[in-house]
C-alpha cells in the first residue's frame, strides 16, 4: 500500500468524505483536504475528525478554506484568492507522516478545476499519489465511473481500486471488470453515521487495503 493516497469521486455527493473517514480509520492514516469549499455546514476535516476512533490519526488543516459551495477555482475567484498549487504540494510534504499512509481528499471528480489552468488530476500527479475511486449508484454512474477510469489510465496514474458507496450498485462487478481496477469494498447506505459505524466498516475494509 502506497503511503500517499488520493480519494477522488466519480462526481459530487457520492460518499467521498465518509469513504475517506473509513479508509483513514482502517489504515490509521493522517487525513488532509487541501481545498475546502462551502463552509455553511462546517468542513470535511471537522467531520472526519469527529468520526475517527484510533489514537494515531491526525487531521491536518486545509491549505485553503473558501465559503462558496462551488469548484475551487470559482470559489477562489469570488473571494479574490489565488490558489497556489506549488504551496499545496509543499504543505503535503510537511504533513506526510514518516511511517504511515496519508489520505488526501479531493473536491468532486478528476476534472474539477483547482485554478484556471490546473485540474484535480494535475494536482494528483504533482502530489505523486495513488488513487482510490469512490463511486455511487445513480443514473449515469456507469458512464461517470468508466470515464474516470479511462482518464486515470490515459494519464498513467496508479489506481488502487474502487470503493462503492450507498445503495447497492447492480453494475459494480461490471464496472470493475470493464475498468480493470479491483473492488476494495463497499460502504452500505446508513441512516446514521457515527464512530461505531466508521470503525465497523474500517475493520471490514482493512484486509483489502493492507
How many DSSP H or I helices? 8
Radius of gyration: 16 Å
Helix content: 40-55%
Strand arrangement, major sheet = 2-5-1-6-7-8
Order of helices and strands: EHEEHEHHEHEHEHEH
- For the terminal residues, how far apart are their CA atoms? 6 Å
Question: Which regions have little confidence, pLDDT < 50, spanning 5+ residues?
Answer: none
Structural class: alpha/beta
Largest sheet: 6 strands, parallel
Q: Return the average pLDDT rounded to an integer.
A: 94
Gross morphology is: globular
- Record field, number of beta strands: 8
In terms of DSSP E residues, the strand content is: 15-25%
Search tags:
210 residues; alpha/beta; two-stranded parallel ribbon; 8 helices; 8 strands
Question: Could you characterize what this model shows?
Answer:
The strands form two sheets. The protein has a six-stranded parallel sheet, with helices on both faces. A two-stranded parallel sheet has the order 3-4. It has eight helices and eight strands. 44% of the residues are buried. With 210 residues, it is α/β, with parallel strands linked by helices. The model has no long low-confidence stretch (mean pLDDT 94). It is 40% helix and 19% strand. The protein is globular, with a radius of gyration of 16 Å.
Amino acid at each position: 500500500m502506497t503511503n500517499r493516497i488520493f480519494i477522488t469521486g466519480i462526481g459530487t455527493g457520492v460518499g467521498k468524505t465518509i469513504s475517506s473517514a473509513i479508509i483513514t480509520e482502517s489504515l490509521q492514516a493522517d487525513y488532509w483536504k487541501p481545498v475546502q469549499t462551502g463552509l455553511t455546514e462546517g468542513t470535511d476535516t471537522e467531520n472526519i475528525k469527529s468520526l475517527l476512533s484510533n489514537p494515531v490519526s491526525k487531521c491536518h488543516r486545509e491549505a485553503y478554506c473558501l465559503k462558496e459551495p462551488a469548484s475551487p477555482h470559482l470559489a477562489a475567484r469570488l473571494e479574490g484568492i489565488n490558489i497556489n498549487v506549488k504551496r499545496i504540494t509543499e504543505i503535503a510534504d510537511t504533513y506526510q507522516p514518516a511511517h504511515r499512509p496519508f489520505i488526501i481528499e479531493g473536491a468532486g471528480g478528476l476534472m474539477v478545476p483547482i485554478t484556471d489552468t490546473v485540474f484535480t488530476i494535475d494536482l494528483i500527479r504533482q502530489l505523486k499519489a495513488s488513487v482510490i475511486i469512490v463511486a455511487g449508484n445513480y443514473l449515469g454512474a456507469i458512464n461517470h465511473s468508466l470515464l474516470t477510469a479511462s482518464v486515470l489510465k490515459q494519464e498513467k496514474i496508479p489506481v488502487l481500486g474502487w470503493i462503492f458507496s450507498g445503495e447497492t450498485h447492480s453494475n459494480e462487478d461490471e464496472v470493475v471488470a470493464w475498468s480493470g481496477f479491483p473492488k476494495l469494498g463497499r460502504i452500505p447506505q446508513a441512516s446514521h453515521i457515527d464512530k461505531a459505524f466508521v470503525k465497523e466498516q474500517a475493520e471490514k475494509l482493512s484486509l483489502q487495503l493492507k
